[in-house]
Amino acid sequence: MQRYRQACLRAPSQTEESGGRAQRMPQTQRAYYELRRRILDNEMPPNAQYLEQELADALGMSRTPVREALIRLSDERLVEIRPRHGARILPVSVDDMREIYEMMTELEAFAVRKLAERGLSRSELRQLEQVLADMDEALARDDLMGWARHDETFHALLVDLAGNSRLSQVVATFRDQAHRARMQTLRLRPKPVDSNRDHAAVVEAIRQRDPETAAATHRQHRQKAGAQLLMLLARCGSEGL
What we know:
The protein is mainly alpha-helical and 241 residues long.
């Protein structure tokens, strides 16, 4: 269960590592994971510009691994490399989010269908029910950040339980890309009580081994959430917050 609670966490930062594991990680990899985490968690805000040396100093390393990390982040459309000017953090694009949610919705619905066709073990059902309870408890405490973490755990768990590792990897990439926009708009949306009901309905349809209802319910849930996210992004500026 623990690994699903970390579903939306990329590799941990140096300060989050224990036993010096971050120090043993190759510097290029460490720079990539840490910069990516900061971008996705909005610690490095959209349109902010950073010099290579500035980032190297912040991470306590030379410029070379930072430069290599920025190239990877550029390939993921998270930064724009500007020669002699370092890198600019790219904003969240409404068009990008639309495409991401379209893909994520259909791929997750496929996973949910497969899971309902196969059926859940008692252990798997308990895992899903625990995450549902975690989301309810977070909302009862008005802990939106906690709810968002459990929500991402829930969606990751649904896909992973379908048993297709390649599907899990692809969906995780889309989920990471959507994470930044979700965090930016989290406190702009109504309290997500309806989302919790949708999640419970999806789990019940899977438990009943009803693939049509499970997939349709999940698809409607993601489409509704995606439409709300796109509306909030557009309201705050079509190129992000």
